[in-house]
């Protein structure tokens, strides 16, 4: 086992996260947030707050007029501070910087904001209806990129595709069609560390330390907003206390910290509370109508799905998520006919964004539940039904997508064997269930890495990947060390720093090991090649007769540490060799630009026990399978799978963000329940398939998102077999399970 | 309503206590939490702030050997007591068995829950040297982790328990 390189720092408390940074003369920022879900902002009076002793700045939208203070990845729809309207309860309206945090907090109470309430669009049902109030009346005039909004509605994007003729296929009398509606709630990431930023401005420009997954996105956004050249905005990312997507897109915290630093001339720190983090980003909720049809012999003929996704008040990356949800409702099966439409919709709720396996848990909850429904109707065992229809490795889920690079049949069989699928529990309160899914992560180039081989033989790796817990720092070190054959202790992967490190768009969508990893590999190979060339020159030997081994260069006669060659070349004055690795779209690992770059597989089988008296469900055993190419760090792969499954258990059994009248009513960790130690399955295994067939170093694929996808559907399917009751909503809380059983039993 | 907002408006309470084995004298504002005092005044930033409502355990420190959520424990209440934070666990740069086990078993990923997790585990193992898996899960329920899924943490605590028992007996742990 290769211990993580951040081990000592994290177990001793020495690891620095953004909130641990204290600068001299630091001011503390706090945000005034809208109490209303939808209202016009008639006036904002900051003067009374400025009078409070200890307050150094109070900003509202007027104070940002000189800047380009609107953000948005695909649709520029989001002001950094509300201008004429607030669109969700919690939206930033003003910001204060003060000597102490409690002074800033008190100053918020003194800011006078006059609101004129508007009718609220608080859920998918109302957002869909034609008479609905509009969250963005000016949707037609926004700058957009790769999005298909429908102005005059709350629809910010429609993802749609068709294969064959579903309606014709379903009208065949030999085809059995089932139709259901499914819903998936809004879910909160709960990273232990809430969003935090510390910013400082000086004659060189802006420096900001921030808890982000995307340091370069932050840099580019800040440069645009504050009209600075890219080389004058420095973003540094210390250790990040969890992301899961919540820190992939950025909105207000970084621009506001910088704006306050500019205004006051002093460094400013803004630390969100967890409650504020709950008002910052979340997973999209979903509501769909879905049909699946199969011939009586069990052959699937088609699937049709009309899906709505609750994107909240601002678009963020909703268009991509709708695209992905549409792809992922299809499932790893042979469907000759498909018709899918997924709409991302604005509502007056917290904006939704990235969250592990975007769109997949929602889509698969519907898709895989329905596979079991159809299987049962036709009299097939769920495993057998899936085996009949599952795509073979090399078949594409639909034309235009990359052929599947994983063997789902093998994963099905191996997981079924481990969980002993064919042995039905004798206890009537127990049952087994399964679900399988693929996801097409957004992992793609570009990435750049730099490698600096120092004159003492140590290696510094510069990348833009944040260490958010996923082990990027360690895995990239392993890749680098492996290329030179040197001990991993000689490698240091620096925290991202946009001043010194090369461009990398983001740390998300399972892209780091494959794309950034390949850049690292190329950079280190460049170093090795340069060192061999140098040796060839100084020793006046043919390059062909030189040999690299474990950090040494030999020519048959001598074997010398490469670092000695460096010192020789640089005249004894130190020196270093710098290599670069560049991964660009359409070349190298991305030849042909086939999407996705690789698939993640989500295979889950579960055995549950239902308490008939309370409705409480216990997970006795969970078996997952994933086709990951190569496990560069096996312990870390297990850690990621287990973490993903536990998040799946969370949204399956108890997580949901509850809104009433546009207000988040369970917006604290005392009211929003996340998994704890007692939720551990009694037994859990993960089967990793390693065929060395991925695009990353050593044949690795990306992983870490697949595990969360099938959990809910696997449990729902097991529950249907145990209780005879089919659930179409989540979470499967004890009271809901109990009540449904009572109702079902009452009916029979 | 009079607004109190300057630095030294609150009458501070003088307190004496021991932190990580060192005697300390300080004057704390009455409303200051132990967490804020540790992080802001002592610059011991290993203890983390997360949920603010005593649910997640990221702020766990030991007060007289008992696990306490320092986010909802007032600093002045520590007077006359012994406080132990994550920084005080390793002795002379040698990691505590629990810290080493967390490394060996991969009991962390992002690491933000880890200091609190380790302190809670210490308070358990100091009291119950041979806990069952159920006892570990029940005791540690007050510490949340979003990254690991908990299994590797349970294994880390079990391994630490074995090592600590062996250390006590003066034999090498298996």
Structure, described:
- The complex is a heterodimer of chains A (748) and B (174).
- Chain A has 748 residues and is of the alpha+beta class.
- In chain A, 27% of the residues lie in helices and 25% in strands.
- Chain B is an alpha+beta fold and 174 residues long.
- Chain B has helices at residues 34-41, 97-104, 114-127, 133-139, 151-169; strands at 13-19, 22-28, 60-63, 66-69, 82-84.
- Chain B has a five-stranded mixed β-sheet, with helices on one face.
- The longest helix of chain B has 19 residues, at 151-169.
- Chain B is globular and about 55 Å long.
- At the A-B interface, helix 1 and helix 16 of A face helix 2, helix 3, helix 4 and helix 5 of B.
List keywords for this structure.
heterodimer; A: alpha+beta; B: 174 residues; alpha+beta; 5 helices; 32% helix; 14% strand
Topology:
The complex is a heterodimer of chains A (748) and B (174).
Chain A: H1 7-12, E1 27-33, E2 39-45, H2 47-50, E3 55-59, E4 70-71, E5 78-79, E6 85-86, E7 92-98, H3 101-108, E8 112-117, H4 124-128, E9 155-163, H5 166-170, E10 175-184, E11 196-202, E12 205-210, H6 215-225, E13 233-236, H7 253-264, E14 268-271, H8 274-277, E15 285-295, E16 300-312, H9 318-328, E17 337-346, H10 360-378, H11 382-389, H12 408-419, E18 430-439, E19 447-454, E20 459-462, H13 472-484, E21 491-493, H14 512-538, E22 547-549, E23 552-554, E24 559-561, H15 562-569, E25 576-583, E26 600-610, E27 617-627, H16 634-653, E28 659-660, E29 663-664, E30 683-689, H17 711-723, H18 734-747
Parallel strand pairs in A: 1-14, 12-13, 16-17, 20-21, 27-30
Antiparallel strand pairs in A: 1-7, 2-6, 2-8, 3-7, 4-5, 9-17, 10-15, 11-12, 11-14, 15-16, 18-26, 19-20, 19-25, 22-23, 23-24, 26-27, 28-29
Chain B: E1 13-19, E2 22-28, H1 34-41, E3 60-63, E4 66-69, E5 82-84, H2 97-104, H3 114-127, H4 133-139, H5 151-169
Helix pairs in contact in B: 2-5
């Amino acid at each position: 086992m290769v211990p993580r390189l951040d081990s000592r720092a994290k177990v001793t408390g020495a690891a620095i996260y953004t909130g641990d940074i204290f600068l001299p003369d630091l001011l503390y920022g706090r945000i005034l947030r809208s109490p209303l879900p939808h209202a016009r902002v008639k006036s904002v009076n900051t003067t009374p707050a400025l009078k409070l002793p200890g307050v150094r700045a109070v900003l509202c939208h007027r104070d940002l007029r000189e800047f380009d203070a609107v953000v948005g990845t695909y649709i520029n729809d989001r002001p950094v501070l509300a201008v004429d309207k607030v669109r969700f309860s919690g939206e930033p309206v003003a910001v204060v910087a003060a000597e102490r945090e409690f002074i800033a907090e008190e100053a918020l109470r003194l800011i006078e904001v006059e609101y004129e309430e508007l009718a609220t669009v608080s859920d998918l049902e109302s957002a869909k209806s034609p008479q609905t109030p509009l969250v963005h009346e000016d949707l037609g005039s926004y700058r957009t990129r790769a999005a298909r909004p429908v102005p005059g509605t709350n629809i910010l994007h429609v993802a749609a595709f068709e294969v064959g003729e579903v309606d014709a296929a379903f009208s065949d009398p030999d085809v059995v069609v089932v139709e259901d509606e499914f819903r998936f709630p809004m879910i909160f990431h709960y990273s232990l560390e809430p969003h935090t930023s510390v910013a400082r401005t000086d004659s060189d420009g802006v420096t900001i330390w921030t808890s982000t997954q995307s340091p370069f996105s932050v840099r580019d956004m800040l440069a645009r907003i504050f009209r600075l050249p890219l080389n004058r905005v420095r973003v540094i990312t210390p250790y990040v206390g969890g992301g899961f997507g919540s820190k992939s897109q950025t909105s207000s915290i970084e621009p506001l910290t910088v704006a306050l630093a500019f205004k006051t001339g002093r460094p400013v720190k803004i630390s969100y509370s967890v409650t504020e983090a709950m008002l910052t980003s979340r997973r999209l909720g979903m509501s769909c109508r879905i049909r699946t049809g199969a011939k009586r012999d069990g052959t699937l003929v088609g699937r049709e799905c009309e899906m709505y996704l609750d994107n909240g008040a601002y678009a963020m990356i909703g268009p991509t998520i709708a695209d992905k949800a549409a792809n992922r409702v299809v499932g790893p099966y042979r469907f000759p006919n498909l018709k899918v439409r997924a709409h991302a919709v604005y509502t007056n709720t917290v904006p939704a964004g990235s969250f592990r396996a975007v769109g997949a848990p929602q889509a698969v909850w519907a898709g895989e539940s329905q596979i079991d429904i159809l299987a049962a109707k036709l009299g097939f065992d769920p495993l057998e039904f899936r085996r009949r229809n599952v795509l073979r490795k090399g078949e594409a889920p639909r034309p235009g997508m990359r052929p599947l690079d994983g063997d789902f049949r093998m994963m099905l069989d191996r997981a079924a064997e481990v969980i002993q699928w064919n042995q039905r529990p004798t206890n009537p309160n127990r049952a087994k269930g399964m679900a399988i899914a693929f996801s097409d992560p957004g992992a793609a180039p570009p990435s750049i890495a730099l490698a600096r081989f120092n004159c003492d033989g140590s290696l510094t790796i510069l990348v833009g990947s944040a260490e958010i817990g996923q082990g990027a720092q360690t895995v990239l070190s392993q890749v680098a060390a492996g290329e030179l054959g040197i001990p991993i202790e000689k490698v240091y992967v620096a925290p991202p720093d946009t001043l010194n490190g090369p461009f990398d768009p983001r740390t998300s969508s399972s892209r780091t090991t494959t794309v950034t990893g390949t850049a690292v590999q190329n950079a280190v190979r460049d170093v090795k090649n340069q060192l061999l060339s140098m040796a060839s020159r100084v020793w006046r030997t043919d390059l062909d007769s030189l040999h690299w081994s474990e950090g040494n260069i030999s020519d048959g006669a001598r074997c010398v540490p490469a670092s000695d060659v460096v010192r020789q070349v640089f005249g004894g004055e130190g020196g270093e060799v710098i290599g670069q690795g560049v991964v660009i779209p359409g070349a190298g690992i991305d030849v042909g630009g086939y999407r996705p770059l690789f698939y993640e597989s989500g295979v889950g089988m579960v055995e549950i026990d239902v308490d008939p008296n309370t409705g409480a469900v216990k997970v006795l055993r969970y078996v997952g399978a994933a086709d990951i190419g190569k496990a560069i760090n096996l312990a870390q792969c297990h850690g990621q799978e287990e973490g993903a499954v536990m998040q799946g258990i969370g949204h399956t059994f108890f997580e949901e963000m509850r809104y009433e009248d546009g207000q988040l009513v369970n917006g604290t960790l005392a009211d929003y329940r996340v998994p704890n130690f007692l939720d551990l399955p009694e037994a859990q295994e993960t089967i990793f398939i390693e065929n060395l067939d991925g695009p990353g170093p050593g044949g690795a694929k990306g992983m870490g998102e697949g595990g969360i996808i099938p959990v809910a559907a696997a449990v729902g399917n097991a529950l249907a077999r145990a209780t005879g009751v089919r659930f179409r909503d989540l979470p499967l809380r004890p009271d809901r399970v109990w009540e449904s059983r009572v109702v079902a039993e009452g009916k029979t | 309503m009079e607004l109190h907002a300057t630095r030294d408006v609150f009458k501070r309470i003088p307190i004496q206590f021991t932190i990580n084995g060192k005697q300390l004298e300080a004057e704390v504002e009455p409303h200051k939490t132990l967490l804020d005092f540790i992080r802001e005044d002592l610059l011991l930033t290993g203890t983390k702030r997360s949920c603010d409502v005593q649910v997640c355990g990221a702020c766990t420190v030991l007060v007289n050997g008992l696990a306490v959520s320092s986010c909802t424990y007032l600093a002045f209440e520590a007077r006359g007591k012994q406080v132990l934070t994550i920084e005080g666990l390793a002795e002379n740069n040698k990691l505590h068995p629990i810290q080493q086990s967390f490394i060996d078993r991969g009991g962390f990923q992002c690491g933000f829950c880890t200091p609190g997790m380790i302190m809670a585990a210490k308070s358990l193992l100091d009291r119950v040297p041979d806990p069952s898996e159920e006892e570990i899960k029940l005791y540690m329920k007050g510490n949340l982790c979003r990254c690991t899924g908990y299994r590797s943490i349970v294994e880390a605590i079990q391994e630490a328990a074995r090592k600590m028992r062996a250390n006590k007996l003066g034999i090498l742990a298996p």
